[in-house]
Amino acid sequence: MKKIINPYIETENGNCFGCSPKNEQGLQMEFFEDGDFIVSHWNPKAHLSGFKNVLHGGVQTTILDEIACWVVFVKCQTSGVTTALNAKFRSSAFTDKGLLTVRAQLISQEKKFANIHAEILDENGKVCSEAEIQYMIFPTEMAKKKFGYPGIEAFYE
């Protein structure tokens, strides 16, 4: 498993709710590349629960969208925006039972769109939620000029 560096931390995008380690109220997700997958081992906080220590469904959806974005950064080597997200909740994800594993992979990439499958697994490897996510992706040069995409080299040491 290879650590992915967050090159946005010291930029105007450095306060991202999903991935910034500086955002104390955020998710503070970190990412790794594991073959075809982008993976995050994430420890949920109690204040993100909905009912009885169950991770709020909206937060789960945000997590799934966030990891899909990192698939776009690393696997598609560009940036993009979410155009569709279809989440399914399979089993409860708890805020008090330890690390959750979040993973996503690129399913297909066309000229303007990337289709990604993402899922959250509990401490026993059971799928809690999953989503099919479509991103509209930008040509790399446009992503660099308009959206501050730093290039694939910036994500690795």
Structural account:
It comes from Labilibaculum euxinus. It holds the Pfam family 4HBT. This is PaaI family thioesterase. Residues 53-128 form the Thioesterase domain. The structure is a single chain. The chain is an alpha+beta fold and 157 residues long. The protein has a single domain, classed as Thiol Ester Dehydrase, Chain A (Roll). It is 17% helix and 34% strand. It has 2 helices and 7 strands. It has a 7-stranded antiparallel β-sheet with strand order 1-2-3-5-6-7-4, with helices on one face. The protein is globular, with a radius of gyration of 15 Å. It starts with a strand and ends in a 10-residue tail after the last helix.
Observed structural traits:
alpha+beta; 2 helices; globular; 7 strands
**Strand line-up in the sheet with most strands:** 1-2-3-5-6-7-4
Strand content: 25-35%
> How large, in whole angstroms, is the Cα Rg?
15 Å
Give the total of beta strands: 7
**Mean pLDDT, rounded to whole units?**
95
**Global geometry:** globular
For the biggest sheet, the summary is:
7 strands, antiparallel
Uncertain regions: pLDDT < 50 for 5+ in a row?
none
- How many separate domains? 1
What's the CATH H-level homologous superfamily?
Answer: Hotdog Thioesterase
Distance between the termini: 14 Å
Identify the CATH architecture. Answer: Roll
Briefly note the structural class of the backbone.
alpha+beta
How much helix, percentage-wise, in residues? 10-25%
Pfam family, one: 4HBT
GO molecular function: thiolester hydrolase activity
Organism: Labilibaculum euxinus
Protein name: PaaI family thioesterase
